[in-house]
Amino acid sequence: MKEKETVSLLQFQSSKGIGSVRGKQLIEKFGSAWDAICWARSARHSVPPWAEILRQDGPRRRAETEFKEAQDRGYTLFGYGQAGYPRRLTEIPDPPLVLFVEGEASLAASNTLSVVGTRRMTPYGAAFCKALIEDLKAYRPTLVSGFAEGIDITVQMAAVEAGLATVACLAHGLGATYPAVHTGFRKKVVKQGALVTEFWREERPIPSHFVRRNRIIAGLSSATLVIQSASTGGSLITADLAFGYHREVYAVPGRTTDPQNKGCLELIRDHKAQLISEPQDLIDFLKWERPDSGFLDHNPTEKGAGAQGKIQTLVTEQSILLCLQKNGKMTPENVQKHLLLSNGQLMEWILRLELAGKIRTEPGNLLVLT
Length: 370
Prior knowledge:
Layout (H helix, E strand, L loop, with lengths): L1 H13 L5 H11 L2 H10 L6 H6 L2 H16 L3 E4 L7 H4 L7 E6 L8 E6 L5 H14 L5 E4 L5 H11 L3 E5 L13 H10 L1 E4 L9 H14 L2 E5 L6 H11 L3 E5 L9 H8 L4 E2 L3 H8 L2 E2 L3 E2 L10 H22 L4 H8 L3 H13 L3 E4 L3 E4 L1
Parallel strand pairs: 3-4, 3-7, 4-5, 5-6, 7-8, 8-9
Antiparallel strand pairs: 1-2, 2-6, 10-11, 12-13
Helix pairs in contact: 1-5, 7-8, 7-16, 10-11, 15-16
């Protein structure tokens, strides 16, 4: 019965005029895609247009062929309403009717975070990605992203290196790898996570596919984090979708003069996203549990509160500035080693000092006094 229903869902996908929204409505009305098709074939009077579409033989044959090829290649197929289909995707208005999956990562993990950002990533963005994964790894999250250049692939490869599961949502079928330069990363993601798409194997990446892909990124997680984004582009589309799905949205700010930060600043300004200045902020917002020790109440001291906070602020700021003055250009990693700061603490201070105009980041991910 599962095979018959999955093929029926693929038939919905293959039938022009039966999209995700209409398909979901038919399933809710008839109980399954197969029952909707059976009704369409048996109806004799006042047949609605959608039923005429489902009577056609071509889409059914194409669906059967695609299903067989997916099975032969070892892909897993999750159909809407079937066991294993991600619950969070059932909550969006236009869920993919069938997901093709290559890999083993769970699509329903409790600690799941979608992370997106610009393809034109700066050294600051790259450093924040790595600091994020370093601070999150104790919570064993699944990281969801779009396998694109820049922020996406940096987060996903950092997750792989940290031993975390990552889900790459594709804008094409599993028969291709886009961008092609990520072919070497594909095996790593499949081994430790999964590639996920709603597109049939031979479908290629076209502009409209990326928007459809973005709704899956937003829908798979309860929260989406944007790390650097221009004022237009796929990252903002994903953030807007997540906001529309009533999911949590977070954004990392940056210098107002950098084009790569304008999208994040606009999300924060328009109250669509919470500001994240360091990875610990995100952990505090999400209230995740450590898999090995139950709920963790961080109860962090309010930054800058009271005399002790002011003294600590002054000491940390001056320590970084003196370190750069003494040693010249330095990578964040070298500053961290000199001052024994955590990744999260260092990223927060880099951001503060850059916003204050006291330091800047040069090519090669080098920090330098202004």
